[in-house]
Amino acid sequence: MIAGGGIAALEAALALSELAGARVSMTVLAPNDEFVYRPMTVREPFAYSAAARHPLASIVRDAGAGLVADELGWVEPGKQLVHTKGGMDLPYDALVLALGAKLRPRYAHAATIDDRRMDETLHGLVQDVEMGYVKTVAFVAPGRMAWPLPLYELALMTAGRAYDMNVNLEAAIVTPEDKPLAVFGQEVSDGVAALLAGKDITVITSGYAEVPAQGEVVVNPGERRLAPERVIALPELYGPSVRGLHVGEHGFIRVDKFCRVPNAGPVFAAGDAVDFPIKQGGVGAQQADVVAESIAQLAGVDIEPRAFNPVIHGVLLTDERPRYLAAKLTGGHGFVSQFSDTPIDGVTQKVAARYLAPYLETREGAVPA
Ligand SMILES: Cc1cc2nc3c(=O)[nH]c(=O)nc-3n(C[C@H](O)[C@H](O)[C@H](O)COP(=O)(O)OP(=O)(O)OC[C@H]3O[C@@H](n4cnc5c(N)ncnc54)[C@H](O)[C@@H]3O)c2cc1C
Fold first, then answer.
1. 220 CB under 6 A from ligand 1?
2. 53 CA distance to ligand 1 centroid (A)?
3. 170 and 132, same structural domain?
4. 348 lies in a domain?
5. CB of 75 sitting under 6 A from ligand 1
6. pLDDT tens digits, 42-55
7. Ligand 1, residues 280, 290, 312: which to mutate, most atoms within 8 A of Cβ?
8. Do 131 and 142 lie in a common domain?
9. N or C: which end of the chain has fewer CB within 10 A?
10. How many domains does the structure of the chain reveal?
């Protein structure tokens, strides 16, 4: 049983289908009709084509799984049962929780990035910048932020659009990171800092922002004050708080290095729902692959599951060509950091998922890189 219909769930289904084939019978439990390629929604406010959307049922079918259109309500690990919000009791031999995170706005006086309505939230702002009505914009990441890449992408694309329209835009990024995109390590931070400097975007690092009123940003420590006409903010993320399981801080699901939920029997978790500080599609897909190997072993496949050891790949969209980023992590910080004009390790897709990325490329209406 795979609960969820996003990147981690579909990667788990495709991986398990590849590794275990007919040894497993899979059910995907998810309420969404469509799988939306979330990373490409950042382009929508700039009047580029919409992010790719695929019918969930057809991907699930291609993975050889059945689909139950409902939501997980709670789990009874002792009985190996999932209870759905719609009232069904579904038994499982192994359960994968890939429920994602909940987005919550941190600031009342900012426009919060929400990929479900990216165009609606930000198209007006982009138009106001193009027309020269708005000349100062702050892009703010709260302390417990979501994946930060879109904030940088939006800042770069907005600045690029202003330049194209001969508008003098003052843009600033305020972030608690100690360097731009610090999770990717030094080389990437240096590369991104140079890109931002080239677009005259000010970056305030190690900064904790408050937005006490419209057009007012206070950055601590130091109470530095900015007065942007508009503020764009990343959301904060909260875990799914699954009833029946012990969850960690802010509702995220605790897992061991094989992405198994401790003391819950054959229950695994992957993706943004997991208590791992980096909430990224590629990282979630790697967790899903780890889970698939463990479940394949439980199903009798001769395989030695590998522990979760994340490598992060990113594709940074700008107003010009994309940049390719990579890092291998230790304790949340990159130790091998790469910044390049060309794809690194052959990764061209925004979500570096071993099974899902090539699968999506071969589908009709392939996802553009
Ligand atoms: C604007 C933006 C840009 C991004 N850019 C990148 C990028 O360039 N590269 C990258 O790798 N990542 C990027 N990310 C992050 C990436 O999209 C997420 O990390 C990824 O989507 C997490 O996958 P997930 O499957 O864990 O969760 P989600 O994609 O959130 O999917 C969760 C799924 O669970 C389902 N669900 C929720 N509750 C229940 C329930 N109770 N029962 C059953 N199903 C349920 C939902 O319907 C959904 O199908 C970006 C995110 C955003 C918002």
1. no
2. 13
3. yes
4. no
5. no
6. 999 998 888 999 99
7. 280
8. yes
9. C
10. 2
**d(CA 272, ligand 1 centre) in Å:** 7
CB 239 within 8 A of CB 247: yes
Model confidence pLDDT, tens digit, residues 244-281: 998 888 999 999 999 999 999 999 999 999 999 999 99
Judgement on whether residues 225 and 280 belong to the same structural domain of the protein = no
For the chain, give the number of residues: 369
As a whole number of angstroms, the distance between CA 192 and CA 331 comes to: 22
Domain that holds residue 35: 2-101+239-307
Please say which residue of 236, 253, 274 terminates a domain: 236
Does residue 142 lie in a domain region?
yes
3-class SS letters over the chain: CEECCCHHHHHHHHHHHHHHHHHCCEEEECCCCEEECHHHHHHHHHCCCCCCEEEHHHHHHHCCEEEECCCEEEEEHHHCEEEECCCCEEECCCEEECCCCEEECCCCCCEECCHHHHHHHHHHHHHHHHHCCCCEEEEECCCCECCCHHHHHHHHHHHHHHHHCCCCCEEEEECCCCCCCHHHCHHHHHHHHHHHHHCCEEEECCCEEEEEECCEEEEECCCEEECCCEEEECCEEECCCCECCCECHHHCECCCCCCECCCCCCEEECHHHECCCCCCHHHHHHHHHHHHHHHHHHCCCCCCCCCCCCEEEEEECCCCCCEEEEEEEECCEEEEEEEECCCECCECCCCCCCCHHHHHHHCCCCCCC
pTM across the whole model: 0.95
